[in-house]
Structures are given as C-alpha cells and as structure tokens.
Amino acid sequence: MSETLAAVRAEFTKLRAVRATCAALLLFVLVSVFVAALGGWSAKGAIESGNPGLRSDFTPEQAGLDGILYGQLALIVFGVLTMSGEYTSGMMRVSLLAVPRRGRFYLAKAAVTAAAALAVALPVTVVSYLVTQLALGSHGSALDADGVPRALAGAVAYLTLMSLLAVGVAAAARSAVLPLAVLLPLVLVGSQVLSVIGATKEVARWFPDRAGAQMLTVDSGDALTGLVVLLAWTAAALTAGYLRHRSWDG
Fold first, then answer.
1. What is the pLDDT of residues 100-120, one digit of tens each?
2. Which residues, other chains included, contact 69 with Cβ-Cβ below 8 Å and sequence gap of 6+?
3. Does 1 score more than 60 pLDDT?
4. What is the pLDDT of residue 209?
C-alpha cells in the first residue's frame, strides 16, 4: 500500500509540474464559465425580445449545464496529455524505473487523473450553473429545482469518466495525436450529427458522450442507463490501455 501511495504522490507532483496539463484544467474552467455566462445572457435576450431562434425545448435548468459540455473538451485533452506525455517525451522509462510494476503505475496515473478532474469538475459545474441563472436574471431557476441536483451530480461523474476514458485511449495509442483526432471531433460534432441521421440514430445513442449526456439531462429518465454505458466504455478503454501499456518496451 505504501508503494502505491508513493506512486500516487509522484503522479500528483508530475501533474503540477507539467504546464500543458495545468493549462488544460484552467481552460476547462474558463470555457465552461464563459459559455455559461454567454448562453444565459443570450437566452435572456431571446426570451425578452420574443426571438423565435430560442430552441423550443429551452429550460433555464438545462441551460445551466450547457457550459460544461463545451468545457469537457479541455478535460479530454487533459486526460490524453496526462497519459501520453510520458510516452512522447521518453519519461516513461524513468517512471517505470521508479515504479517497476506497470499495473501500479497505471493505476496511480488513472487515479490522479480522476481525482484532479473530479476536484475541478465539482466546483466548476456548480458555478457554471449559477452563472447561467444569474445571467438569465428573472428567467433563471434555483439550484435545488426539480432534477437539478441529480443532473449536477451526474455532470460531475460524466466529466470524471470522460477524462478516464481519454486516459485509456491515450495509453492504448501511446500518443496524443490519434486520441485527440478521434475524441474531440466525436464529442464536438460527430455523435450529434449521427444522432439525427435515421440510419445511425440508434447506434449513436450508445456512444459514450451521447449515452453519458443523459446523466446531466435534468428531466432524463435514462440517466442510470447512460451511466452504465459510459462506465462500460471507460472500463473497456482503461483495460485496452493497460494491456497496451503492459507490453510497452520503450
């Protein structure tokens, strides 16, 4: 146990020392809060002007969670960089000399990534929601409105799991380029586009981001299903990453 804790402490030290991963976490905060404020302000203007461009399913409660859907891209980058950075820089050799047991090293890396993502996602999710409601003014909703606490908790879990999924994919690819080239377009536009095409609509709902999105949908009846699907994707990615990492020979 002491060796595992030492490995975890070492990973926390490396995390704080790498500018790129710290920058990704900061970007998550800035993008999430900025989009939350902009979305609330825009929606308020649309409501008060009777703008028909306001989406028909708009609710202030759900709007409060829109910001982190964009911010999550930075957390995916964070997860990828946390794992892939040591492969591309050659530091993996040094890390494995310090922690020869690859399973322990991989566990420590994943645990630190999850802890950092959780520590940032929790306050940012709540703050983003409150910023949107503040921007909406009299059209806003409360933090304890029906379904909101559950959706906020689901959002934090979703963000943490997506970060871990990124770790697994990066470990399997042993680089940052391929995971980012696949995950970012998929989350940003890919699965959304596929979800509105008749031939792929049913398949797209089982993608990790589309299924996981149910976790942060205020009035969703499929939040638990979404959690199970996202857990399955995350577990599969982490397993693939571990198997690939175990065979790494430098």
1. 677 788 888 999 999 999 999
2. 213, 216
3. no
4. 87
The 10 Å Cβ neighbour count of residue 200 is: 14
| Residue 133 to residue 38: CA distance in whole angstroms | 11
Two structure tokens written together for 76: 């995916």
Sole residue written with tokens 């609330």: 40
- Annotate 6-53 with DSSP letters as a single string: HHHHHHHHHHHH-HHHHHHHHHHHHHHHHHHHHHHHHHHHHHHHT-TT
Cα-Cα-Cα-Cα torsion 226, 231, 236, 242, nearest 10 degrees, comes to 150
Amino acid type, 105: F
Tokens of residue 86, six digits: 């040591």
* Residue 122, CB-side half-sphere exposure with 13 Å CA sphere: 5
Residue type, 77: V
Is the overall model pTM greater than 0.85, yes or no? yes
Hey, is 218 helix, strand or coil? coil
